[in-house]
Amino acid sequence: MDAHVQNVFLFEVAKQCQFGVNAHAGLRNVLARLQERPSKLDADTRITLHNEVFRSLHSLLAHAGVVSRILWPPAAKKGAKESAISFARRVARHEPTKRANSLRTAVGLPDKHPLRSRELRDHLEHLDERLDAWAREGGGSIVQDLIGPASAISGVAPSSMFRCYDPASDTFTFRGATYSIGDIARELGEVADACIPVLVKAGFMSSVKLVRWDSTGSARAR
Q1: Sheet holding 177-180: strands in order across?
Q2: Which 3 state secondary structure label does DSSP give 85?
Q3: For residues 124 and 112, what is the distance between their CA atoms, to the nearest angstrom?
Q4: Is it the case that residue 83 has pLDDT exceeding 60?
Q5: Where are the beta strands (DSSP E) in the chain?
Q6: Closest Cα partner for 195 from 74, 87, 72, 107?
Q7: Rounded-to-integer distance, Cα 62 and Cα 54, Å
Q8: How far apart are the first and last CA of the chain?
Q9: What is the DSSP string of 146-203?
Q10: What is the pTM of this model?
Q11: Better-scored residue on pLDDT, 211 or 3
């Protein structure tokens, strides 16, 4: 891969990682406000902040999805009537795979990596299909945008629980499957830390530190 093209891709990866980490920090800030005494927040403000929790989560996952597709793109699929030899040749020419292999090698990232999975992001991006499935299964009771453990709600099937976020464990549960948001944010930070030194060494960007924002709004470097 051309060095300039490589650096452009790695710069975008680093930026998307930073955007994702900042979305996670914003999530924590919103949660801190929601924990204030009820008398300090009117009903409309509490609803707005509640919605902002899930907007921040969606933002984090969208940025993680961009990183995932750049570094771990969808693999080529074998055609029904395609021979093994023909498929192998096509895979060898598959541009996204070649690009991703080159980028991961440049920054020392493995083929197998937690960010390779886009399952939770896909649940949110294709929510219409998930709701179609829920409707086909009978519809009925549904839980959406719960802040707290999914176990806090009884009498509802796991498949009818959409967007449940537990701040205590920093996990997101969607239709019975639970995902660690904290792990995703940490992995984004680690990928950024892998890309930035390569970009700095190439003179593509200045030396920077990935800065997180705590719940008071003050900055601290990683």
Answers
A1: 143-147, 161-166, 171-174, 177-180
A2: helix
A3: 23
A4: yes
A5: 143-147, 161-166, 171-174, 177-180, 211-213, 219-221
A6: 107
A7: 12
A8: 30
A9: EES-GGGS-SS-GGGEEEEEETTTTEEEETTEEEEHHHHHHHHHHHHHHHHHHHHHTT
A10: 0.86
A11: 3
Q: Which two tokens stand for residue 118?
A: 């886009």
> What is the rounded average pLDDT for all residues in the chain?
90
Burial (CB count <10 Å: 0-12, 13-18, 19+), residue 182? exposed
pLDDT of residue 216: 44
Give the single-character DSSP code of 112: S
The encoded tokens of residue 183 equal: 């792990």
Inter-axis angle of helices 84-93 and 95-107, nearest 10: 50
Number of residues in the chain: 222
Assign 207 a pLDDT band (cuts: 50, 70, 90): low
Rounded CA separation 177/157 (Å): 12
What residues are paired with 164 via a beta bridge? 146, 173
Q: What is the residue type of 4? A: H
Report d(CA 29, CA 45) in Å as an integer. 14
Rg (CA), the chain: 20
